[in-house]
């Protein structure tokens, strides 16, 4: 059995945003999820139940519901993003322990997200982490091709001059770590801590035993703190 990749060589730390830099149980994404359902319902003029089925089908098939709506129904990305990210960010609280742990890592820290820069800015402001990252690669920078599309990771690596063999990727979805691992990155799956209810699809919580997952943690601040020490 192959040993999981380590971190001693890492000089670039890459983080997903939602359900990674804040705990799953905050359920902030549940608000976005509900807004997506409303958008699909209104755009396609279908019932909420039909919209829910379409939303989740596109999410699994295209990586994001937005990609499916753009591809199959001519939706403009700007309209979609403006609608679905109009949420209440107040459930997020400052996380100085995570900020200290991130600051202690040697090298660059980047965000790679299927969300928008505006959403990233709002989340980081609430968490008190806005000064801890050196760059953001969002869905617009990706040309609206979401993770786990291979070309999205390649564009991210090229745009930010990242050597994948010297990078680590932190994600809450195991499927989004497949390509990073194939490219040579050390991969970390961030999972719920089990103390509070989370609103996720079953498949979103699978994969912690997958070969492309090097490490699993339910405490990102503690995990990073141990690395920085």
Topology:
Elements (H helix, E strand, L loop, with lengths): L11 E4 L12 H17 L3 H15 L2 H9 L3 H8 L11 H8 L4 E5 L4 H11 L7 E3 L12 H10 L7 E5 L6 H6 L2 E5 L24 E3 L2 H9 L1
Parallel strand pairs: 1-2, 1-4, 2-3, 4-5, 5-6
Helix pairs in contact: 1-2, 2-3, 5-9
GO molecular function, one term: hydrolase activity
Organism: Bradyrhizobium cosmicum
Keywords: Hydrolase
What does this structure look like?
With 229 residues, the chain is α/β, with parallel strands linked by helices. 41% of the residues lie in helices and 11% in strands. A six-stranded parallel beta sheet has the order 3-2-1-4-5-6, with no helix packed on it. α8 (178-183) links the parallel β4 (167-171) and β5. α2 (48-62) packs across α3. It holds the Pfam family Hydrolase. This is HAD-superfamily hydrolase. Keywords: Hydrolase.
Secondary-structure-based class equals alpha/beta
Q: Provide the spatial order of strands within the biggest beta sheet.
A: 3-2-1-4-5-6
Q: Main sheet, how many strands, which sense, barrel?
A: 6 strands, parallel
Helix coverage percent: 40-55%
Q: What's the tally of helices?
A: 9
Strand content: 5-15%
User: Are there runs of 5+ residues with pLDDT below 50, and where?
Assistant: none
Q: Average the pLDDT over all residues and give the rounded result.
A: 93
Per DSSP E runs of 2 or more residues, the count of β-strands stands at 6
SSE string: EHHHHHEHEHEHEEH
Cα end-to-end separation: 28 Å
State the gist of this model.
The protein is built from 9 helices and 6 strands. By secondary structure, the chain is α/β, with parallel strands linked by helices.
């Amino acid at each position: 059995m192959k040993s999981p990749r380590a971190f001693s060589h890492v000089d670039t730390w890459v983080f997903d945003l939602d359900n990674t830099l804040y705990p799953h149980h905050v359920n902030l994404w549940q608000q976005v999820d509900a807004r997506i359902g409303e958008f699909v319902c209104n755009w396609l003029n279908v019932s909420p139940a039909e919209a829910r089925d379409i939303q989740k089908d596109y999410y699994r098939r295209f990586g994001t519901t937005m990609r499916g709506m753009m591809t199959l129904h001519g939706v403009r990305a700007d309209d979609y993003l403006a609608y679905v990210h109009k949420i209440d960010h107040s459930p997020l609280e400052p996380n100085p322990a995570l900020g200290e742990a991130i600051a202690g890592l040697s090298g660059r820290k980047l965000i790679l997200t299927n969300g928008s820069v505006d959403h990233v800015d709002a989340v980081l402001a609430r968490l008190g982490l806005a000064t801890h990252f050196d760059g953001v690669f969002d869905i617009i920078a990706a040309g609206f091709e979401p993770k786990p599309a291979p070309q999205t990771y390649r564009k991210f690596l090229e745009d930010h001059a990242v050597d994948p063999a010297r990078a680590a990727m932190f994600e809450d979805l195991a499927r989004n770590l497949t390509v990073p691992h194939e490219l040579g990155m050390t991969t970390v799956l961030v999972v719920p801590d089990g103390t509070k209810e989370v609103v996720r699809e079953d498949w979103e919580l699978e994969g912690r035993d997958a070969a492309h997952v090097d490490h699993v943690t339910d405490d990102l601040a503690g995990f990073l703190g141990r690395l920085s020490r």
